[in-house]
Amino acid sequence: MADALFVALRKVALSLGEGALARIGTEVVEAAPILTDFEHSMRQVEGELSVLQAFVGQVRARGAGGDGAFRAWLDQVRDVAHEVEDVVDECAYLTAQAAAADAGGSFFKRKFRQVRSFAAWQRLPVQISQVEARIRRVAEMRSRYGIEVGGVDRGNTLQNSSQILSMSDSAYLTDSSEIVGHAGEIGRLTQWLLEEKQDRTLISILGMGGLGKTTIASSVYKNQKIRRAFNCCAWVTVTQTYQVEELLREIVTQLTEQRASVATGFMTMSRMRLIEMIQGYLRDKKYLIVLDDVWDKDAWLLLNHAFVRNNCRSKVLITTRRKDVSYLAVQDRAIELETLNYAESWELFCKKAFRALKDNICPKNLRSLAEKIVDKCQGLPLAIVTIGSTLSYRELDEQEWTFFYNQLSWQLGNNPELSWISNVLNLSLDDLPSHLRSCFLYCSLFPEDHWIKRKLIAKLWIAEGLVEERGDGTTMEEVAEHYLAELTQRSLLQVIETNANGRPRTFVMHDLVREVTSITAEKEKFGVVQGHVGSTQVSHDARRLCIQKGAGSDNYLASSRLRSFILLDTAVPSSWICDVSSHFRLLRVLSLRFANIEQVPSVVTELYNLRYLDISYTKVRQIPSSFRKLVHLQVLDLRFSCVEELPLEITTLTNLRHLYVCVVHDLQERSLNCFSATKIPGNIGGLKNLQALHTVSANKDLVSQLGNLTLMRSLTVMNMRQSYISDFWNSLTKMPNLSCLFVFASDTDEILNLRFLKPLPNLKFFWLAGKMEGGMLPPIFSRFEKLTQLKMDWSGLKKDPIESFSHISTLVDLWLYGAYGGEYLSFCAGWFPKLKSLQLADMEHLSCIEIEDGTMMRLHHLELVGLRNMRAVPRGIKYIRTLHQMFLTDMPKELVESLQGSDRHIVQHVPNIHIFDSSDYEAVNNFIFWPHLSKKYGSGATKYDPTIRG
Predict the structure, then answer these.
(1) Residue 4 has pLDDT above 70, yes or no
(2) 869, 893 Cβ separation under 8 angstroms
(3) pLDDT tens for residues 339-364?
(4) Quick one: pLDDT at residue 179?
(5) pLDDT at residue 441, rounded to an integer
(6) Strand, helix or coil at 921?
(7) Element (H, E) at 296
(8) What are residue 104's phi and psi, to 5 degrees?
(9) Which fold has domain 423-526?
(10) Is the Cβ–Cβ distance between 458 and 534 less than 8 Å?
(11) Where does 242-323 show beta strands of DSSP type E?
């Protein structure tokens, strides 16, 4: 809970440091008499809060496990911080409102707005006085009840440690006969511990909390064959709150097994003396030491000196939740545990829940409910064992089990019998530093099994002020990606998809981790979720709200403190959206993706603090000129909407970092005009913070203005003409970090001369749609050293281009759509060593594809589309043993028949082969549209109705 406070305090410091008060003084002349006292009060509050900010860092070690008085007091501190945050955001809101009033409207309208805002300015000093009074009361309360804030409470730490140890002890004491699954991991561990490697070997077991790391380690540690192989053994639980001297004393005690004969003064020995004692004892012994639950590398860096390397074939086994700790292990001596599969989960659950029944068989009347509960556990042994054991004491009554399942979210937070689950999972949450903890809490707002997209979550964090700006040329997006990497390292997020460059693209949160984290987020008023099973009434103090389903009520109208409003319920009417949005004046994030709206709610342009606006996949057709008032806007996402032209005022939004606007006309991307060409009038050269721009219609002025956007990383330009090319290529050279470039010619006859194109050192994705000069591929392609994805459309190439592309050894995806007019394509041995996806489409004369043995040795995905002259299956496909799926769309009848008949042996190793006609609307949705939405936005996006494209 201290972390929400930390974020609020940091936001206060940043806002005040940017001179917000000075700007207010210059922009609202009428409020001048008030502002002097107001500024003085704000400075006083800032001084008081700077002390609180230091305090927040100190209470990290106490976490949520502190005594009740401490937790209640910290709640009060957080509420004060939120009130100060509200004042600061209100200042920013009124400042932007005043600027907007001065910028437009008649004289009388401007004066009316100023008079109306004057009253709001007058209220601010009163709010400040109230905040100051609350700060004083909080300080007095701390003294009155003797609440310590300067350090860690010893008794409380010991209490937490005892609780953690009891969990670890329980896992340690688990009988090996009760273990289900992980047989392969246990076998490997046994082999490694018994191997006769002379040097001391460090082995690690990695996994999220509750996966069974301790249980597996204890099963091999207690194995008598393994114990007899060593001269001495020790098992030590490290925990988050370990004391070095206590660890060392415990190791000495277990190794010697002679507590009474330990040297006098053992309890007061220094750290160095204890290390020397361990060294002396282990010097000539073959030892096995298990360090259970290691949270950071520092613990090992010290113990490493104590555990001597004596060439006696000794072993050290570490269990940890953190990848950086697991990397301490010797190469190839690390195990990363995965969740149990369904069969294993079911077996374990039945063993626990129905242990009193013969053969642990689930009664028929409970089968459906039991399966739902097992599904909910998602293969996490801790949850399966704990929930199963809890249910074993209950009647085998369907109604009682139904009630338990429907209340499972509530049970996790309130049922003492299930406290182990939340306690174990919360250990990882409480170990997070403040900035990571807030970001992780934000992830819990999304539905279960939601695919968390790297780029999307980074933008949301930045808009919310959760990401620090580090300078030195590092963007906040890069810092946010570093945060994601840290959360992955700590086993809190799992990577489920990487991009062509091997970077994580999609993450997922274990459902029970999400449930427990959601409970914490709601308790701390960080954010709430409406619509999932077990959700409660929305708190009016919540700072963030995600509506998954069940919208339409008036519960949210008093939630004026909201900073993020994310609507995932697509069934609500547009009138409700407009009504409810009007109450969220301090919003920083507004996501209406997939909402049933035809125009932007008028209140949106009054949200002066807005940083992130997503109205993609809606029926919106027009962006009003009043968007000029959104001066803080960083992200504007209009993809798959119906907007084809932006107003001139968009070019005044100088804080824009990401601008996405395009109408998609061809889902299969088989035509040159598959996207609309969005027009942006005026000079975009002032948008110097832009990092992504998709899509924009080219003209002579625009291609030159692009050269001012030196931070650009991703760019799509449509309607390119030969007369623009020289200036365009020149502008690209001023974008040193450009990694993604899409260029579309104005029509199929427009020739794109790449003679002036210079190598773009960081280009990774290049999509070029248009005719090449002379039908030849320029040599520049061989000089793209980092290119991983290449798409060429309607290039008019006369010579087989495959050899030219083969020199791009980094290619992972290659798409050729109508790019080549010849009859033969050849893939020779040794070419495309990293290629995973190949798509060949709409080359009307292509009749033969030669594939040699030894080419494309990693190809996973092959698509052949609209190759009307290809009558036979490429025989070389049989050499591509890694091929997992083939898509054949609009291919000749003869080829399809041979594939299913005489040539079946060529593709018999390919497990997934899909054949369909592009005119089949349902097939296009199932194989192109839905996968596209799921890949970009997660599984929840498949509820979208494609008919809204208009």
Answers:
(1) no
(2) no
(3) 999 999 999 999 999 988 888 899 99
(4) 85
(5) 95
(6) helix
(7) none
(8) -155, 165
(9) Arc Repressor Mutant, subunit A (1.10.10)
(10) no
(11) 287-294, 315-320
Please tell me the number of Cα atoms within 13 Å of 545 on its side-chain side. Answer: 31
Residue of 64, 11, 52 whose CA lies nearest to 521: 64
Higher-confidence position of 939 and 118 = 118
Q: Is the pLDDT of residue 218 over 80?
A: yes
Provide mean pLDDT across the span 814-839. Answer: 95
| Cα–Cα distance for residue pair 877/850, rounded to 1 Å | 9
How many Cβ atoms from other residues are within 10 Å of residue 551's Cβ?
Answer: 21
Residues 6+ apart with CB under 8 A from 826: 800, 802, 803, 849, 850, 852
Q: How far is Cα 465 from Cα 11, in angstroms, rounded to an integer? A: 7
Pairwise CA distance, residues 486 & 492, whole Å: 9
- Side chain identity at residue 745, one-letter code: A
Judge whether residue 2 has pLDDT over 60: no
Place 476 in a pLDDT band, splitting at 50, 70 and 90: very high
Amino acid present at 477? E
Contact assessment for residue 438 and residue 1, using Cβ atoms and an 8 Å cutoff: no
Structure tokens at 882: 């890694």
Predicted pLDDT at 896 = 92
Side-chain half-sphere exposure of 133, counting CA atoms within 13 A? 6
d(CA 382, CA 424): 9
Tell me the domain boundaries of the chain. Answer: 2-152, 182-336, 342-395, 423-526
For residue 731, which of 769, 693, 764 has the smallest C-alpha distance?
693
The C-alpha angle with vertex 315 and arms to 313 and 318, in degrees rounded to 5, equals 165
Task: Classify residue 105 as left (phi > 0), alpha (psi -120 to 50) or beta.
Answer: left
The residue among 72 and 176 whose pLDDT is bigger is 72
Candidate from 333-347, 528-542, 849-863, 930-944 with smallest mean pLDDT = 930-944
- In 597-728, DSSP assigns E strands to 612-614, 635-639, 658-662, 692-697, 714-720
User: What span, in angstroms and rounded, lies between the C-alpha atoms of 348 and 752?
Assistant: 63
> In Å, how far from its chain's centre is CA 178?
35
CA pair distance 81, 8, nearest whole angstrom: 6
- pLDDT per residue over 29-41, tens digit each? 343 444 455 556 6
Options 2.40.40.10, 3.40.50.300, 1.20.120.30, 3.30.360.10; which CATH number does 182-336 get?
3.40.50.300
Q: Is 194 exposed, middle or buried (0-12, 13-18, 19+ CB in 10 A)?
A: middle
Q: With beta carbons less than 8 A apart as the criterion, state whether 668 and 647 touch.
A: no
157-178 pLDDT tens trace: 434 444 444 556 666 666 666 7
Stronger pLDDT, 253 or 480, i.e. the higher one: 480
Residue whose pair of structure tokens reads 């919540």 in the numeric block:
542
One-letter identity of residue 492 = L
Q: Which helix H or strand E contains 156, and what residues bound it?
A: helix 154-172
777-801 pLDDT tens trace: 887 877 888 999 999 999 999 999 9
For the chain, report the end-to-end CA distance as a whole number of angstroms: 46
Provide the 8-state DSSP code for 387: H
Q: What are the two backbone dihedrals, phi and then psi, of residue 668, each rounded to the nearest 5 degrees?
A: -85, -5
**The dihedral of CA 33, 36, 37, 41: what is its sign?**
positive
Helix (H, G, I), strand (E, B) or coil at 722: helix
Q: CA distances (Å), 141 to each of 4, 70, 76, 149, 155, in order?
A: 21, 11, 10, 12, 21
C-beta of residue 610 within 8 angstroms of C-beta of residue 588:
yes
Amino acid at 654: T
Query: Is the peptide bond preceding residue 618 cis, with omega within 30 degrees of 0?
Result: no
Per-residue pLDDT band for 325 (boundaries 50, 70, 90) equals very high
User: 23 pLDDT band (50/70/90 cuts)?
Assistant: very low
Describe the crossing of helices 454-463 and 434-443 by its angle, rounded to 10 degrees: 120
Q: What is the pLDDT of residue 103?
A: 60
User: Do 30 and 112 form a contact (C-beta atoms < 8 A)?
Assistant: no
Q: Which residue has the higher pLDDT, 46 or 893?
A: 893
